[in-house]
Design goal:
two-stranded antiparallel sheet; about 55% helix; mainly alpha; about 70 residues; globular; 4 helices
C-alpha cells in the first residue's frame, strides 16, 4: 500500500498547502482529492509535487506492505 503521510508532514514542515500545489504546480484538484483518499496518482503528479516542494519522492510517498502478504 502506498501512503501519502510523508507528503502531509513535508507540507506542514514547509508551510505549504494544497492550494500551493494547485497554484504553483498546477496539480489538479482531482489529483489532490485522490491523494486525500489514498488513491493512486501519476508519476507526473509525483514529479510536479517534488519540484514544487523541492523534495524527493521519499518525502511524498512511502510503501507499507500489507499485513496479509507473505
Amino acid at each position: 500500500m502506498i501512503s501519502y503521510a510523508p507528503l502531509w508532514e513535508t507540507m506542514e514542515r514547509l508551510h505549504a498547502s494544497t492550494y500551493t500545489l494547485q497554484v504553483k504546480g498546477k496539480v489538479s484538484s482531482s489529483s489532490i482529492r485522490r491523494i486525500k483518499a489514498g488513491d493512486s496518482i501519476s508519476t507526473n503528479t509525483i514529479d510536479a509535487i517534488c519540484k514544487i516542494l523541492n523534495c524527493s519522492v521519499d518525502d511524498i510517498i512511502e510503501y507499507i506492505p500489507d499485513e496479509n502478504e507473505d
